[in-house]
Every structure is written in C-alpha cells, then in structure tokens.
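Session log. Operator J.P. requested a structure for one protein chain; no other inputs attached. Running the standard single-chain path with token output.
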Amino acid sequence: MWTVIESPIGPLRIVEHDGAVTAIEFSPFHDSDGRPRGEQADDHPVLRATADQLREYFAGERTVFDLPLNPAGSAWQRSVWAQLLEIEYGRTASYGQIAARLGKTNAASRAVGFANGSNPIPIVIPCHRVIGADGTLTGYAGGIERKQALLDLERTDQLF
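Structure written below.
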C-alpha cells in the first residue's frame, strides 16, 4: 500500500508492505521499476505514522525516526544501510568511513556508494548524510539539490 505526501523537497510516495516501510520515493514517481506497491491507502497506520514523522522532521521537530523498516536488498546493501542509520542527525560520514566501519578498506568506498545509491528508504535511512572524503556532495538518487536541502535542514550550527 502507499500514500503520497507533500514536502519541502517535493512530493514523496511512501510504500509499506506487511506492516513495514519498504520505500520512500521522490517525484517524479516511476511505476515501471517492478517494485510492488499495491493500492493507495492514505489511512494505513504505518503510512500515517511515516507521514506524520516525516512532517515533524521537515518542521525541525524530529531528529530520529521510529518506524518499522524493511528495505529490500542484498546482505551487503543491508549492512551499509544499517551503518547509515548510525549517522546522527546533523552529522555526515564519508563513503570511506562507512567502509571502515564495515571492516573494509577505502577500496570498498565505491561499493558503499552503490549500496548507498540503492537505498529504497531515503531520509529515514539517511543516505543524504554520506559525502565525499573531501567534504563535497556526491551523487544522490533524489538529486544534489534535495541532498543539499536535507543537509541544510539538519544543520545544527545555525545562529538563528
């Protein structure tokens, strides 16, 4: 089942299956990717909770999500996504740092990048918090502008 919410970075489609969030998709939505979505169900409890928590996040009222998640991916992808969940709000990590946390050398940075780019639940699994080793913003499935907007939202060093 799925629902769509408006957000400061454009419409987001939230997808759930068997009581867990399986995807958050950026607009424009692509229905031909083979992912099961089911029917629209704006009142489904998991979808409602996810929509509420995303609204709180965008309002600056939430820094941690508390949702059932079930992203589909390989064991490697899931291990990378688990590391992304450890990056705190307002913080960033490089691809090489994520590789090191997984016991791999910096040579695994590209594999971390591919797994990061395959994250089906962006924002909640914060792939936007992963940056290049030199501090630059690198690719983002939702586009660099969205990545920058999410990082700006999480900035904790703002004076006002």
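Operator note: The chain has five helices and five strands.
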